[in-house]
Amino acid sequence: MSLIHLVILSPFLLAILVPFAHKYFKSIHTGWFVFVLPLFLFIYFLQFLSTTMNGETYTSTMKWIPSIGIDFAVYLDGLGLLFALLITGIGALVVLYSIYYLSKEKEALNTFYVYLLMFMGAMLGVVLSDNLLVMYSFWELTSISSFLLISYWYHREKSRYGAQKSMLITVFGGLAMLAGIILLYLMTGSFSIRENIANVDVITSHELFVPALLLFLLGAFTKSAQFPFHIWLPDAMEAPTPVSAYLHSATMVKAGIYLVARMSPVFAGAPEWFWLVSGFGIVTLFWGSFSAVKQTDLKAILAFSTVSQLGLIMSLLGIGSAAAHYDYIGENAYTIATLAAVFHLINHATFKGSLFMVVGIVDHETGTRDIRKLGGLMNLMPITFTLAIIGAFSMAGLPPFNGFLSKEMFFTGMLQALEIGAWNMETLGMIFPVLAWVASVFTFIYSMVLVFKTFTGKYQPEKLDKKPHEAPIGMLIPPIILASLVVIFGFFPMLLKGVIEPALYSILPSNVLSVEVKIYHWHGFNTELFMTIGVILVGVLLYLTVAKWGKIYDWFPQRLTLNKLYDGGLVALDRGSSAFTRLPMTGFIRDYLVMIFGFMIILLGALLFFTDAFNVNLTNVAPVGIYEVILAVVMVISAVTILFVKSRLAAIIALGAVGYSMSLFFVLFRAPDLALTQLVIETVSVALFLLCFYHLPELSKKMDKLRFKVTNFIISLGVGLIVIFIGLSVNSSKLFESISSYFEAASYKEAGGKNMVNVILVDFRGFDTLFEIAVLTIAAFGIYAMIKLRLADKKGGVKGESK
Amino acid sequence: MEIIMTIVAGVLIACATYLILSKSILRIIVGTGLLAHGAHLLLLTMGGLKRGMAPLLGQEAEAYTDPLPQALILTAIVISFGVTSFFLVLAYRAYQELKTDDMDKLRGNENHE
């Protein structure tokens, strides 16, 4: 247990104290107590910058379950540190924002901050754990806390729906990832990420390589909302805005990105990895930006925008993985893509966080997020408008903001992908730059929609619930900080060199010796610049004519959307499992018995005949006696009679006949005690039957259907035959002598009794008898209770009676 | 002899199965009684039906029948009697409360409202 473990677990510890703070300091907003922690953690993590800049890493291990190799091992390198700084920095800003966003009187603040802290700790655990299983535990904790945060306003149906959806999808992916982790363990015998990276040769040549890769990617794609798993993210917008800003823009949705980046050194050399990561990323980028344009809700626009930007980062990571495929030849051909990915990851966290906060402010001040009702807020909320401009222009990739820089590098990376001389890139590679360019156009359009539809145009006060005015200063500080970062990183991108470079070393394979981070505004007149100019020109043109071409969204069949598929799938699963359950679970006892007996016949019959167990051996049998044969005939006749009699009395008497023949058999086969017991018991049983007889109804006169009878006949014939076959086979293959010679010898000598059966019952095997007595006692008590206790419910019916 | 007895036990168990699969409670209980008889007979048969004396040491015999299966059967008889009597009273009470002995009408309601 070192300081860094305490740091990771500190949010959980504080979460325990939050309810007390909420209860005993009613006058102070609970958020202030929480705000201190991420701030301190941010400062704490800043100290590690000097460590990682020198290419060093920090490790510390705490034993958890050493016997199976699970230790809480913390490994802090460039990538982990970058994420830790994002989580704590944006976390502090979000907490500050939420202090002003959530009202002290109306909201249940204690639960909110407990969930938020739980999420923060879990997220820190994900990015700093070296042990894959510990990482997975934290991964699921993020899913759970996200679920809780989305359904924060649990009285709304939509919140619950969104929370359930995100839970199902992300936990599905998380479990897939767990399977991938186990496969990795099978390959290398280690849960440690670093040891797995060291054993990359073993992994790539292993047959489980591709399944493990697919499972890991499932985990990453579901968490990072890649196509087609992106559907949970727009529905997660039902959460309070601080949650959307924190979880669904800056941190949790980047956990999948983190996973892909972290596992890159393990999987990157394979074409499957490249095609899946890049392909899904680029499709997600296009689909997210295309869908964002048609949204009318500000948060939905931002949600789809997040989806598309995550796709962008993902596709860049995929192309960057090509660096692992080629031996290092002295030029940073493919590292630029990874650099762009890391840089855009930081940029996206800054501008998307601020945009969410801006939208939250608009929502807070006007009471709506619907762009059809909004407009003309420019003069009323000038600061918010400025922040929105900065964020949206950065998102659209316009100079001088940081989004422009990462967009340029993105185009560079995509164009360089064409030069990968492998994996069918010569032919299929054109997809990347083309899709990237089209998606950028759409990105430009929705960014413009976001700003100008909200802040310019006609002011419609009649549609708004409140009279809008500028937000309180506390609410503005966090987005101002983020927007300032957008501008600062835009003008001085080299400030980030110290963060990005170590992160690149973590992602890139070890054969890349040196990475030079150079981010400039001006690259001269090259293809990327013309692509950007094209994006702006076409984007402006399309934005102005959106009314004309917007109809294409209506062409898309409503029945085929992914949400419909998901909802339909859930319903179908529900119905399917109900139908499947109803198939065997009819509620009729007889059906269950038919299944049980049928299964028994099939299983035992198959065993008997496939293992050649059936044999009849007549050498060791006792001679047939005339009395026994007569008695056997009597017994069979009385047993079969029971089946055909119409009256109850005859059935009971026939059963009695079988019982008395049994005791006669016991006489013939030299079992006096059994004969006695059987006689007495049979008499008592028949008496009991006759006692109940008076109260029970007549056997039904109704004839059963033929099918019913035939089924019963076949089943009972099968059971009888199986019993006979097994009995004969057992009799024919005596394996060893009985142990009864011992009872003969010891019965008198040791136990002092001459009746061997009785001596066995009370001496050699007295335990059986004790509990047999218990059985009788329980039966007696049970019968007494049934007769005496009349527990009817208040309605007069019997409990459990079907209405 | 064992072969005949095994077949008799098989017939008993087949009849018992047929009764257990029927709809009326009384027939089902009769079936369980029959099933118990079949099982006891099978136990006895499997122990071997060698002609020896009854397992009483006072008889000074050359050979005795095997006492162990007899002890087992004795235990089983008592237990099956307890279960059968319990079932019978259960059936009687069920009929008193629910006014039917038809298993199909006693079908449980799967959808708990």
TrEMBL record, chain A:
Transmembrane region(s): 6-25, 32-52, 72-100, 112-128, 134-154, 166-188, 273-293, 300-324, 336-362, 374-396, 430-452, 473-496, 529-550, 592-610, 622-644, 649-669, 675-696, 708-728, 769-787
GO cellular component, one term: plasma membrane
Record GO biological process: proton transmembrane transport; sodium ion transport
Domain NADH:quinone oxidoreductase/Mrp antiporter transmembrane: residue ranges: 129-420
Signal peptide (residue range): none
UniProt entry keywords in alphabetical sequence: Antiport, Cell membrane, Hydrogen ion transport, Ion transport, Membrane, Sodium, Sodium transport, Transmembrane, Transmembrane helix, Transport
The keyword Membrane is annotated on this UniProt entry: yes
Main location: membrane
Domain NADH-Ubiquinone oxidoreductase (complex I) chain 5 N-terminal, residue spans: 64-112
Annotated GO MF terms: antiporter activity
Record NCBIfam families: 2a6301s01, PRK12645.1
Name of the protein in question: Na+/H+ antiporter subunit A
Species the sequence originates in: Sutcliffiella horikoshii
